[in-house]
Design a protein that fits this description.
Layout (H helix, E strand, L loop, with lengths): L2 E5 L4 H11 L5 E5 L11 H17 L4 E4 L2 H14 L4 E2 L5 H7 L4 E6 L1 H5 L1 H10 L5 E5 L3 H6 L6 H10 L8 E6 L8 H7 L5 E3 L2 H14 L15 E4 L2 E2 L3 H18 L2
Parallel strand pairs: 1-2, 1-3, 2-9, 3-4, 5-6, 5-7, 7-8
Antiparallel strand pairs: 9-10
Helix pairs in contact: 1-10, 2-3
The structure holds D-glutamic acid (DGL).
Length: about 260
C-alpha cells in the first residue's frame, strides 16, 4: 500500500522529497490540488472542502497513510480529517520549536500564508514555545503564485520579498521559519536578502520522522522495497498526470529541492 502526500500545489513536493530520502522503500502518490491553489487566500470553509475531497480520493486509492504537506490545510482541516478517516493522517506546521531553541539573542521570523498566519493553531504554537516574545509572523500573500509559476529567483521575487519585509529590520533576525511548503523553493533568495545570513527552518524533516514513527507503531512500515516498486504517481486535482512536459517540470523541481536541501 502507498503513502499519499497532498498539497494545493508544488509546495508539497518539498515534503515528498524529504520523505523519500527518509523512507526510500515506500511507494507514493502525490496529489496537487492545482484547480484551487492558492489555498492561503481562500476561506477556511473552502479549504476544508478541498482537503476533504483530496483526502477522500487518496483513501479510495487505498493509501495506508496520508500526509497533509500543506501548513494551510493542516491548520484548518487536520482535526476534522482525523475524525472522519481511520488511517493515520500526518500534518505539517511551522517549525517554531527548533527555531526558538536556536535563535540566540536574535529574533525569529515566521513566514506563512494569510490563513496560517491568522489561524489560532499558529498562535497557540507560538504561545507554547516563545515565552519571551521573540517571534514575528509575516503573512506572504502572493508568494505561492510565484512558486506555482516556477519563479524562484527573478527580480520580481526579490522585489516581492523586499516589499513584504519592509517594516522589519532584517539585521535583528537569526531564524526564518518557512511556514508554507511552497516557500522552500526560495531559499537562495531569502539568503540574499538577510544581510547577516539567516538560518532557514522548515518542517519537512520533522514530518518525515513523524511519519516513520507512526508507520512503525502501526506495523505498516515497509522494511524492504516491494519487488516491483512503482514510480511515484502524480495527480492534479484527481487527474493522473501523464503529460510529458508536466512530468519533466516535476523532475526539475525535485532537482531544485535537492539543491535547496544544501542551503
Ligand atoms: N503549500 C501550502 C502551505 O504549506 C499552501 C499554499 C497555498 O495554496 O496557499 O501552506
Amino acid at each position: 500500500m502507498k503513502i499519499g502526500v497532498f498539497d494545493s500545489g508544488i509546495g508539497g513536493l518539498s515534503t515528498l522529497h524529504q520523505i523519500m530520502h527518509t523512507l526510500p522503500d515506500e511507494e507514493y502518490i502525490f496529489y496537487a490540488d492545482v484547480d484551487h491553489v492558492p489555498y492561503g487566500e481562500k476561506t477556511k470553509e473552502e479549504v476544508l472542502s478541498y482537503v476533504d475531497e483530496a483526502v477522500g480520493f487518496m483513501v479510495k486509492q487505498n493509501c495506508k497513510a496520508i500526509v497533509l504537506a500543506c501548513n494551510t490545510a493542516t491548520s484548518v482541516a487536520i482535526t476534522p480529517m482525523r475524525q472522519k478517516y481511520k488511517l493515520p493522517i500526518i500534518g505539517i506546521e511551522p517549525a517554531v520549536k527548533p527555531a526558538v531553541m536556536h535563535h540566540g539573542d536574535k529574533r525569529i521570523m515566521v513566514i506563512a500564508t494569510p490563513i496560517t498566519a491568522r489561524e489560532v493553531k499558529l498562535r497557540k504554537l507560538i504561545d507554547r514555545f516563545d515565552t519571551e516574545g521573540n517571534v514575528d509572523v509575516v503573512p506572504m500573500p502572493g508568494l505561492v503564485r510565484l512558486a506555482q509559476n516556477c519563479e524562484f529567483e527573478s527580480d520580481k521575487v526579490m522585489e516581492y520579498l523586499k516589499e513584504a519585509f519592509k517594516g522589519y529590520d532584517l539585521n535583528n533576525y537569526s531564524e526564518l521559519v518557512l511556514g508554507c511548503t511552497h516557500y522552500n523553493y526560495f531559499k537562495d533568495s531569502y539568503a540574499r536578502i538577510f544581510p547577516n545570513g539567516i538560518e532557514m527552518v522548515d518542517g519537512n524533516q520533522g514530518v518525515a520522522n513523524n511519519l516513520k514513527n507512526i508507520l512503525k507503531t502501526c506495523g505498516i512500515i515497509n522494511l524492504e522495497a516491494p519487488k516491483e516498486k512503482e514510480e511515484v504517481k502524480y495527480y492534479y486535482s484527481g487527474r493522473l498526470l501523464s503529460d510529458k512536459d508536466e512530468l519533466q517540470k516535476i523532475k526539475m523541481l525535485h532537482e531544485r529541492l535537492e539543491e535547496m536541501l544544501r542551503l
